[in-house]
Write a structure and sequence with these properties.
Elements: H1 14-20, H2 24-32, H3 52-79, E1 83-92, E2 95-104, E3 113-119, H4 132-140, E4 144-148, H5 158-161, H6 168-181, E5 186-196, H7 198-209, E6 216-220, H8 226-232, H9 235-242, H10 256-261, E7 275-280, H11 292-301, E8 306-311, H12 326-343
Parallel strand pairs: 3-4, 3-5, 5-6, 6-7, 7-8
Antiparallel strand pairs: 1-2, 2-4
Length: 345
């Protein structure tokens, strides 16, 4: 069976192309962000190349890197007084993965702090301002936080942008945990993980694949069943998902095994870490009844240690974690009260 036609997507160089065509949005991006260093190892495009596509790819890479620099500058400007913020790269297999590490300020040299991994969602997302409040809240509670920009994250060059869904991403998240537990001042016996959407899926995968690594976890609107996901998504999204290397360009009807294997719902038996789950009714991206609701049922059936909170049509729908709303405030309080019981910051 042939895959359905894929919705047109922005190809490498498209941002730069709009700039060349005189369209304002891309020109504004270039004008409002600091210049990226074209010699950065994260911008691997050959600057001597003569073909237009390669040149456009280089400019797009520079734009993305510049956007990250602007984000980082904004982060420092807002939060440097209350927490230490450091960019780093850690080893995951043979690659280096970009990450941000956040620590309380001042850091008590005589104290051991619990560590928390915050995992973003999205297909090619990355750290942006939406996560600032969550990270600051965690650090304010006494956690050392790492934010891994796992493979498929954008803004760090071609190698890091490449995606292998359910493989390199989870490997990078688990490697981030290994890196975090070795940092000075971090107690390796008190690691937690907090993820949203695809990050919620990776959180579930992490506590299933490394059952004793984490002492507590939080999943917010996480994707739990890839077969269900492929059933209700539009054709272009199904095609994009199937194009991931592990699926071999095939839909579940043609290659069921990988979709079963990578669905956290099918591996609940492996979970040992206490788990807090949050979701909202009305979520159209990760519908409650197909994902979080079934996960809760599976956890109950297996007598797992967990708590849950389901909000009623929280503002923001799937993105309710990021709104300045009573629901978000309540989620922060509940989820960190849960983490605190096990990680004792």
């Amino acid at each position: 069976m042939k895959l359905p036609a894929k919705r047109p997507v922005i190809k490498p160089g498209a941002i730069a192309l709009t700039a060349f065509l005189g369209l304002a949005p891309a020109m504004n991006v270039l004008a409002q962000t600091p210049a990226a260093d074209p010699t950065s190892p994260r911008i691997a495009t050959n600057q001597e190349a003569s073909d237009v596509v390669t040149k456009l790819g280089l400019i797009e890479a520079e734009v993305q890197a510049a956007q990250q620099e602007a984000m980082y500058s904004n982060l420092l400007r807002q939060y440097d007084a209350q927490m230490s913020i450091r960019r780093t790269e850690y080893a995951s297999g043979t690659d280096l993965v970009p990450a941000y590490v956040f620590t309380p300020r001042p850091l008590d040299p005589g104290k051991r702090y619990p560590g928390l991994i915050v995992v973003h969602g999205g297909w090619h997302s990355r750290l942006d301002w939406h996560f600032f409040d969550l990270i600051a809240y965690a650090v304010g509670k006494g956690y050392v936080v790492i934010f891994p920009e796992y493979h498929s994250s954008s803004g760090y060059g071609e190698t890091n942008h490449k995606s292998n869904f359910g493989n390199t991403d989870i490997a990078d998240v688990l490697a981030a945990a290994d890196y975090l537990e070795r940092l000075p001042g971090v107690d390796p016996a008190r690691l937690g993980i907090y993820g949203h959407s695809r990050g919620g899926m990776l959180t579930l995968m992490a506590i299933e694949r490394a059952p004793t690594k984490f002492k507590a976890a939080v999943d917010v609107a996480g994707l739990t069943d890839l077969i269900a996901f492929m059933a209700y998504k539009p054709d272009w999204r199904r095609a994009e998902t199937a194009s991931e290397p592990y699926f071999g360009g095939k839909l579940p009807s043609e290659n069921l095994g990988p979709y079963v294997e990578l669905s956290p719902l099918n591996h609940v038996d492996e979970i040992q870490a206490p788990l807090f789950i949050a979701a909202t009714t009305g979520d159209k991206t990760v519908p409650l009844t197909l994902h979080t609701g079934r996960l809760i049922d599976a956890l109950k059936a297996r007598n797992k240690v967990f708590e849950s909170k389901i909000y009623d049509k929280a503002p923001g729908d799937h993105l309710f974690l990021f709104g300045d709303t009573p629901e978000r405030k309540d989620l922060f309080e509940r989820s960190f009260a849960f983490l605190g019981k096990y990680l004792k910051p």
